[in-house]
Amino acid sequence: MPGLAGATVVTRTEGDKDKLALWYDKPARQWVEALPVGNGRLGAMVYGRPLQERLQLNEDTLWAGGPYRFDNPGFKAALPRVRALIDEGKFIEARDLVAKEMIAQPATQMPYGAAGDLLFDFHGVDGAQGFRRTLDLDSAIATTRFASGAVRHVREVFSSAPDQVIVLHLQATGGTLDFDVGYRHPREVKYGDGTFDVTKARHDVPAGAPWDVSEDLAEAQRPASLSIRADGPRALLVEGRNADHAGVKGALRYAVRVMALGDGKVDVDGDRLRVRGAREVTLLIGAATSFVSPRDIDGDPVKAVRERVDAAARKPYARLRADHVQAHRALFGRLSLRLGRADAGTAPTDARIAAVPQTDDASLATLAALYLQYGRYLLISSSRPGSQPANLQGIWNEGINPPWGSKYTININTEMNYWPAEAANLAPCVEPLVKMVEELAVTGAAVARESWGARGWVAHHNTDLWRAAAPIDGPNWGMWPCGGAWLCKTLWDHYEYNPDDAYLARIYPALKGAAMFFVDVLVEDPKGRGLVTSPSLSPENPHHPDVAVCAGPAMDRQIVRDLFAWTLAAHEKLRDPDADFRKAVEAKRARLAPDRIGAQGQLQEWLDDWDAQAPDQHHRHVSHLYAVYPSEQINVRDTPDLIAAAKVSLNTRGDMSTGWATAWRLALWARMGDGEHAYSILRGLLAPERTYPNMFDAHPPFQIDGNFGGAAGILEMLVQSWGGEIRILPALPRAWPEGGVHGVRARGGIEVDLDWVGGRATRVALRGKPGQAAKVRIGERLVTVKLDASGRARVALT
Asked: Where do the Alpha fucosidase A-like C-terminal domain residues begin and end (predicted)?
């Protein structure tokens, strides 16, 4: 898979590095104030508390349950009856039959879990003067600094990809460290009701002195399966089992191992690790489960954590740190962004977020640049080769009952997680999603065959660690057969941004299988409007009160049209001899029902003109605008009438919604070239109603897709790559009159460096394959540029 080779690492000045940090003048009192570290597989939330540090741990395979299938056995028999009811306009009856005979039994999947907490109780710490905690995005290190009397404390935390451990380094200058470390089992967490209310921030915290906050190690009931014991003279070993859920027994074993190395006395006292009289200590934390693959759960987590921690213990701290930073910067350093000339200011990050509604454009520009880089940091930290893909919360989840199960919601959210990956020059981060699609194609083939009576494979609107593919939740959410097809867009985007025949050959079976499913299941619209999916829905949006089930919604037609086009292109490129398949796909694609403009001038969300009577005119999903973004079927160059209709739809929906839905609106207006509208939405996304103090996106509660969608939208304002062109400053707002972005990736494997002053490009440089040609559009001017023998070119600006 194309990855690190050939990528340019941007050289940063010290001033640039200063702007690449979140910082705070007080510790975290709750989760959305803590700072995330991660290596793709292993994550932690760092609270930075002087008296009691808390590291909340996550391991990306620690999900509930085990291998399972919940397919409804009545699906295939009910399918023709449901289609007939939809054709007759009996949508309520169709909905009820779907609920009874087609939705999985039980109608759920497995939730992602947490790996518990490590609580560090410090003795002799009295107050915290000069307190400062930071998350340096450039080094991926969370640092806490403060003084307690004459003792200066420095604590650094990072999650190392090369060594596969979390590292906590503690140093006391002018004194010593005395502390105990204990493990707290994962707990249920109380969340807000998730109701959208723009008048309330969702991160209010109790008053009181923040530095002395501490939590009870024993507040969670320990299950009988949990074991905490010494594992050598300097290490603590935790062993446990994952949770049961919905009748599926927990089938995974997990282990956490903590080792302390330092110049003081270290021993194990019962279920606590104890350190006394040390000036400098390094804690090494490993976590693993017995998960090997969705059908193999026979790994040895204890062996894994012992090997990883012991190997890390053979390195001095300086080497652990240097190896971690080098591996992180190899990805993070591939793109830089400067918006405006204003410095980052002197206010802490949480204060800057709280002040967004009153912030001037110059200060907001630096916050937007930080937000983009934070999104890149989060993707690197939650999705690296060898890990699971980023889920609804990346890898950071506080409890065993995460919002929406913290699953892979594939009717928008998982796809949005990867929207910035290619343009933001993080192609290697896509690998976990590619692997997930390959695994999902296996389970999805069984659902296609046994439920739909079709070849190929299908996935509906959610999946999990076990790659479940049947429809869940209920007919108004789950009866959507295009989740797998939409995931294929991320695979195809990766190919277009990183052309490679070997990779194309790898993903072709997934593309072909997804396309084969729709060749088999598309049906004739009874009113003669073309081929449609049935039953389906426009994701999560009812077209009449409490009913979403329908035939042929716009999004399905758009996704299938794209899928067929990608598959045909791959078929030709790879010279697949299956001519009958090619002819079938071509014939079906030609007969897909086209997009339609409704009576209000809007782009119709459904095949029938129901938009004006749909119950929720401000619905968070804008599914029928998939063709605008992330697709390019509807665009400002080729389909101006449909773009005008899309704007009518989007204006009706409104600018503010849940976090991720606000980010989608940002990206849509940017793609349509309206920089002022996009900027207005970005300001709302960065405000405290949609951004928590630690810069996590507030759905509410936290969902990471808003961070990723927002990052993609910012880049879309500056550089676009579609329709065979690279577009320079296509949606630049007046608020960003000057700036620069270096290392943006464009389709065709080209990197772009761009500077502008007075809203006009002053430098556009390209890097790519020697001799490669690229079409570059700057305003109304389209030029063709050929890269020289070194793979570089400058675009003439006059």
From this structure: 720-783
Q: What would the pLDDT profile of 466-514 be if each residue is shown by its tens digit?
A: 999 999 999 999 999 999 999 999 999 999 999 999 999 999 999 999 9
**Predicted TM-score of the model (pTM):** 0.96
3-state secondary structure 435-496: HHHHHHHHHHHHHHHHHHCCCCCCCCCEECCCCCCCCCCCHHHHCCCCHHHHHHHHHHHHHH
Q: Which of 3.40.630.30, 3.40.190.10, 3.10.120.10, 1.50.10.10 is the CATH number of 74-105+427-595?
A: 1.50.10.10
The 10s digit of each residue's pLDDT in 89-136 is 999 999 999 999 999 999 999 999 999 999 999 999 988 999 999 999
CA distance 559 to 544: 23
Which architecture does CATH list for 24-64+113-190+202-333?
Distorted Sandwich (2.70)
Does residue 103 contact residue 479 with C-beta atoms inside 8 Å?
yes
The Cα 156–Cα 509 span in angstroms is: 45
CA atoms of 471 and 719, how far apart (whole Å): 37
Four-residue CA torsion sign, 81, 86, 92, 96? positive
**Structural domain boundaries in the chain:** 24-64+113-190+202-333, 74-105+427-595
Residue 82 has pLDDT above 70, yes or no: yes
Are 355 and 364 in contact, with CB atoms under 8 Å apart? no
Give residue-wise pLDDT tens across range 531-562.
Answer: 999 999 999 999 999 999 999 999 999 999 99
Rounded to whole angstroms, how far apart are CA atoms 420 and 715? 8
**Closest residue by Cα to residue 398 from 184, 580, 672, 679:** 184
Are 249 and 66 a contacting pair, CB within 8 Å? yes
Residue at token pair 């035939």: 551
For residue 36, is the peptide bond before it cis, meaning its omega torsion is within 30 degrees of 0? no
